[in-house]
Structures are given as structure tokens and as C-alpha cells.
Design brief:
alpha+beta, 4-stranded antiparallel β-sheet, 3-stranded antiparallel β-sheet, 27% helix
Length: 247
């Protein structure tokens, strides 16, 4: 009886994890450059009985174990904005931003200039150029970004956006504020790296698919809850009848 409850509990924990992933995806449907994640699970076989008096071989129980939440790196839809500081990255490249925890990476290309004259992301992190943060003076105008990442103003070239790539981009971990951290050093994107000025890459979350997954997970969770309730009821009846027999 307890085995059935433990198997059901492992499945419920997996479904709760998947529900968290779906909820995060849904919350970021409108987040520029956001990359969806999915939940993956493996079967974990565990032996049950170990006494030597059983007639047959011990059977193994099949539990559910979390395998991770891989990232979906498919390109989001490119939308034109006309803002000269907006950039949409093509391919598998990332922008580099500076945070108190060190360098982080993002696909969110909706940029602006903060009061200190720095080129920053929507959440205020300085965007790194090949020579460091890109800085503007109070009197500079006509700021624009070229397809190769070159940033210029009425005073000429001010720097070039640093774009990077990764040998294993699926190993990136989310670090909040639509940023990613990498366990391995980033690689230069190379001279072939291109972006689209005056546009942004939208989230690649497919809302209809996520809503369908949400309903499936909720139904599965309820089904497992009902199974565990019936199993617990059956155990209670068995204990009650055994007590009656002994009396």
C-alpha cells in the first residue's frame, strides 16, 4: 500500500515542478527575448523487498526523477519598433551585460541610455561593448546602432556591442531579470554576427501550447490525487478488517 502512495507522491512532485515551469513561461509571454523552458523527467527504478523468504524475485518500483528544465533557443518573432536603440539578435548570439555578480547574457535588445549616459538594458544593467561599457556625453545626439553592433552618435563611433555565443547554450542557467549565467566562458560571436536595428525579438513562448500543457498537468495531478486517496482508503479498510479478525 505504501509503495503506491510513494509512487504517487513522486509523480505529484514532478507535476508540481512542471507546473512551476509552465507558470514561469506564461508569466513571460510578453517579455522581450525570453526563452521558454520545459520540464524533463526520467524513470528511477528502486528495489522494494529485500527479505530472503520471497518466492519470486524482488520487483522494482518505478519512480519519477527530475532531469532538468532545458531551454528552448528557437528564434522569437522579430517586431519592428523604429526605436534606434532597439536591437534584435539573429542566430544564437547574446549580448553581454555587467551586473554586481559579474557578466551575464541576454537576448533582450530593448536598450536605453540612463541618466549617467550609459547604454543599459530595460532593467538598468550596463551593456558591454568590446572595450567595456558604452558611454555617451550630455550633448550627444543621433545615437544609433548598426547591423554589426557598431554604436555611433553625432560625435562618431562610440563603441561596438560585444556579442557572444556558447558551445553548449542549453547549459545556460536563468539568473533573473531575463539574464543568463554560464558555467563555461563565452566565445566571441565573430565578425559574421549580425543584429537587426530598430527591432526587438519577442518571447518564443507559445501561449496556446502552454495553456494546453497547463490543463493536462492539472488533470494528471487530480488523477494522481484521486488514486492516492483510494489507496489510502483501501489500506484503512485492510487494517480495520485485520483488527476485527484478531479480536
Amino acid at each position: 500500500m505504501e509503495n503506491a502512495l510513494l509512487v504517487g507522491l513522486s509523480r505529484q512532485m514532478a507535476l508540481a515542478r512542471e507546473l512551476d515551469v509552465i507558470a514561469n513561461n506564461m508569466a513571460n509571454v510578453g517579455t522581450n527575448g525570453f526563452k521558454a523552458r520545459s520540464a524533463r523527467f526520467n524513470e528511477f527504478l528502486m528495489p522494494v523487498a529485500s527479505a530472503e523468504g520471497f518466492k519470486g524475485f524482488d520487483r522494482k518500483l518505478s519512480y519519477v526523477i527530475d532531469k532538468g528544465t532545458p531551454i528552448d533557443l528557437t528564434q522569437g518573432v522579430i517586431e519592428r519598433t523604429g526605436n534606434p536603440l532597439d536591437v534584435a539578435l539573429r542566430g544564437d548570439n547574446f549580448l553581454v551585460v555587467q551586473t554586481p555578480q559579474g557578466e551575464r547574457y541576454t537576448r533582450a535588445g530593448s536598450l536605453s541610455i540612463n541618466p549617467r549616459g550609459q547604454l543599459v538594458t530595460q532593467t538598468g544593467q550596463p551593456v558591454m561593448g568590446e572595450g567595456g561599457p558604452i558611454q555617451f556625453g550630455d550633448t550627444e545626439t543621433n545615437v544609433g546602432i548598426a547591423v554589426d553592433g557598431t554604436v555611433s552618435s553625432n560625435l562618431g563611433t562610440r563603441g561596438k556591442l560585444r556579442m557572444v555565443r556558447f558551445d553548449n547554450p542549453r547549459g545556460l542557467s536563468s539568473d533573473g531579470a531575463n539574464l543568463f549565467a554560464s558555467p563555461t566562458p563565452a566565445l566571441p560571436a565573430g565578425p559574421q554576427a549580425r543584429l537587426e536595428p530598430g527591432a526587438i525579438e519577442t518571447s518564443n513562448v507559445k501561449a496556446v501550447i502552454e495553456m494546453t500543457r497547463l490543463m493536462e498537468v492539472q488533470r494528471s495531478y487530480q488523477s494522481i490525487a484521486n488514486l492516492m486517496s483510494k489507496s489510502d482508503e483501501l489500506r484503512s479498510r485492510a487494517i480495520s478488517r485485520l483488527a476485527d479478525q484478531q479480536a
